[in-house]
Amino acid sequence: MNPVLLTLGDSIDKIFYGFDMAIFEFFGSIQNTFFTYLAKFFTTFGDEAFTIPIVILAVVLCFFKKTRKYGFTLLFAIAVGTIITNVIVKPTVLRIRPYNTLQGVADYWQWYVGAGALSEGDYSFPSGHTTAAVETAMALFICFRQDKKKIAWVFPVIALCTAGSRIYLMVHYPTDVIGGIIVGTVAAVAGYFLMKAVMLLFDKTKLGNIDAGKLFSKMSEKSRGKVAAAVICIAVLGIFLYAFIPSLSEGGEDTVRCAYNGEYDCYNAARLEDDYPAIDGERYCKIHWNQLNEAKK
Description:
single chain; mainly alpha; disordered N terminus
């Protein structure tokens, strides 16, 4: 690990310490059982278990002429956001999660445990959940606004609630969330313009003839629209429940946490997949597993 790169995350911690703690204090002051479940509800919109099936749904939308622009905008937005967040920024900034760096701050630790003591397995900046929720929401917002649909405004509200949930649950610094909002918005705008370019290609070639909607040509256009809307709503609801229900039991003492105990006792969730086998009988998070594995080579 390059110590020079580590100073970037450390610098953000120091520069924004007062700001981050002030926001943490506000969210800590409003903690109660209802808000905790509400935070878990909204944080689901940024979870991998929600985003990955949405990608699959977006691919399906690309095969229907009337929904193609939504599908491509979502696909490109999520791709751009994922690359910026997980491939470029997180490995560059290397910011450690607040529940690791603020273990000595009694108030923060009380808020963290009070919100359920959830944990993640990677670096903190920017917030991946926020990026995912914002890029998806803003992609849909832009498309629906182009179609002058009032429902467009629902999506940014959901995204902002998801962003706030990450702070409430104390798994991200507020500055991580701000970073996720910026990245997600940039990704959505980029996704929209990339969609425009691809749609031009479709319009000028035989690709434009691809339309799975023709399979339902015996139905009236109005009926097709209603059925399509119903199917999409049911699919999204199913995807959400698939991601949300398991999240209700996450956190707390039952979580298998990383065995690293160097400059801090790592509270990241340990990786239990076959791709991350135990090292000397101990389980580690993605960050420390990679570090220890590299050290052994």
